[in-house]
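TICKET #2291
ISSUE: user wants both folds in one file
ATTACHMENT 1:
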Amino acid sequence: MKLIFVLGLLAITQTFISSGQVRNTRAVTNAKAEQEIRQVEDRRREALLRGDTTTLDQIFADDYSVVNQFGQVQTKAEMMYALKFGALKFESVVEDNVSIRVYRDAAVLTGRATSKHEGRESTQLRFTRVYLKRQGRWQTVAYQVTRIT
């Protein structure tokens, strides 16, 4: 009877230890993913400021869509065209209060941004950006902004 009790206790202990290891592994994996996404975000911001559509083409997924501050839906092709031909030109983009939540091969970013487009006033926004990890790299698939008044 004691042997059954001890074996049961060992099994329960092993389950708790394994559970803790899974959580620790997930935390390390999420931290790595967050770091990778922050690097992509830095590249994206720099590319927006330079109008570097080659870099943005890699970061924006083919099915990328944007809901801008005016409620208009734009595709990747429309964004790339506007950036390439100067209809959309960023002078500055500053983001803060950025939170990244990772869900395996998906991540949701939320935060606040202050951006200035050429010929316009500076605008403060709240944003949500969604990333998916495809073929070993993070790409943004959706972006939505709301103007802060």
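ATTACHMENT 2:
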Amino acid sequence: MLFKRIFLGSGLLLLLSWLTGCAIIHTETTEPLPEPTQRPADHQKSPAPLVRPAKPVERPSRPAAPNRTIAAITRLKRTAAEQVNSGKYTKAVVTLERGLRISPGDAILWQQLAAVRLEQKKWRLALNMAAKSNSLAGQRYTLQADNWRIIAKAWQALGNSNKANHALDKRRALLRR
């Protein structure tokens, strides 16, 4: 019974505090509104601005960012290759994904990641990454041919020899160019 009284009392208190928070207070004024200020004529001087425009900040020149980016990507590719050679595939994936965050349009990074995924027996990922690399490869036919080799191996591992043979045919056609 005591619990019921406390519960109801606190509920009423909550309801009252909510209702008072929603109350609208009207105030009436009998004073007239002030007259709008007149704009100065074109020949009159306008008042000085309240805020002065900021002076442009001169920033020191930095070396070109693309050079640093290229160097970072090159280091990441080299590190990933060393990690793959020592069998540290998970670390290689992390390294290559870091490179892709820096340069998502790098077809070689996508191909290296596809090759690592193939080694990890993650066939579908290898297929997707090799296809992504092909879409970014442009006219680098050797790179595309290597991607088609990865695609063929992945399809073969998935048990689809027709698609694997089709990928190998595409690879051969690219190598003849």
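RESOLUTION: both attachments delivered.
EXTRA DETAIL ON ATTACHMENT 2: The chain is about 65% helix and 0% strand.
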